[in-house]
Write a structure and sequence with these properties.
Layout (H helix, E strand, L loop, with lengths): L7 H8 L3 H9 L6 H24 L16 E5 L9 E8 L2 E6 L2 E3 L2 E4 L11 E6 L10 E6 L16 H19 L22 H14 L8 E3 L1
Antiparallel strand pairs: 1-7, 1-8, 2-6, 3-4, 3-7, 5-6
């Protein structure tokens, strides 16, 4: 499920819309006016653009995957992806609070998360799990990580929240696209020739650098960790 980097409320606030006052105005009218129909179409288009932007944020052109909270309560890794003499595994979505680790169904207790919290960037989770003494596995075995409370819907994986700078990128891009539409651009909800949504054309170079910073830091895990979720 795609995370909501941009929300309708956040984008309308940036645009200066007041949906509540529009609702009150609509309720006072006995029939639907031309302006009401236009407003409905505007809201539908804006919601489409927000959905497309949120989906694009997790593509290989942007972040390369989700960056935010996860509701996983367990995560299964392919033991063949262990690195550093089979003692370390990358976990791209990140880990905040892990209670139990098993290798081929057997509990291990000599594991640690790295980097330590004081060595991480603000708001970032740990991305590596290490064994202090043993190895993870030489063969096709599974390494299963369990969140601190399996009944907790928030789990222990992912970022604690969607980073504010990613929300800013997503919502600012939609605002740029919306103003371009107002200035005469018509095709706002289709796809480009390579499949990217039209709204992605309005990502500034500064915002692409922000996305690249996340993607590059998280790409250390790309190709290493084949992940199945449970």
């Amino acid at each position: 499920m795609t995370l909501e980097y941009a929300t309708f409320e956040g984008v309308t606030a940036r645009l200066g819309w007041d949906p509540e006052s529009e609702d009150e105005s609509a309720e006072s009218e006995s029939s639907e006016s031309v302006d009401d129909i236009a407003e409905d179409k505007d809201e539908a288009l804006l919601r489409t653009m927000i959905g497309q932007q949120n989906a694009w944020m997790e593509t290989r052109w942007a972040l390369g995957g989700p960056v935010g909270p996860s509701d996983l309560t367990s995560l299964t890794l392919d033991g063949r992806d262990a690195r550093s003499d089979r003692k370390m595994m990358f976990v791209r979505i990140g880990m905040r609070d892990i209670a139990r680790v098993t290798v081929d169904g057997r509990d291990i207790d000599d594991w640690v998360l790295r980097p330590l919290e004081h060595d991480r960037l603000p708001g970032w989770p740990a991305l590596q799990i290490w064994r202090k003494h043993g190895i993870f596995t030489y063969d096709w075995g599974n390494v299963v990580l369990y969140a601190s409370d399996e009944s907790d819907s928030e789990g222990g994986f992912g970022f604690a929240a969607i980073p504010e700078d990613l929300t800013d990128v997503a919502e600012t891009t939609i605002v740029r696209a919306w103003h371009s539409k107002r200035a005469g651009q018509q095709d706002m909800s289709g796809n480009t020739t390579n499949g990217q949504p039209m709204v992605s054309r309005y990502v500034s170079e500064r915002d692409r650098e922000t996305l690249r910073g996340y993607r590059d830091r998280l790409s250390l895990t790309r190709g290493f960790a084949s992940v199945w979720t449970g």
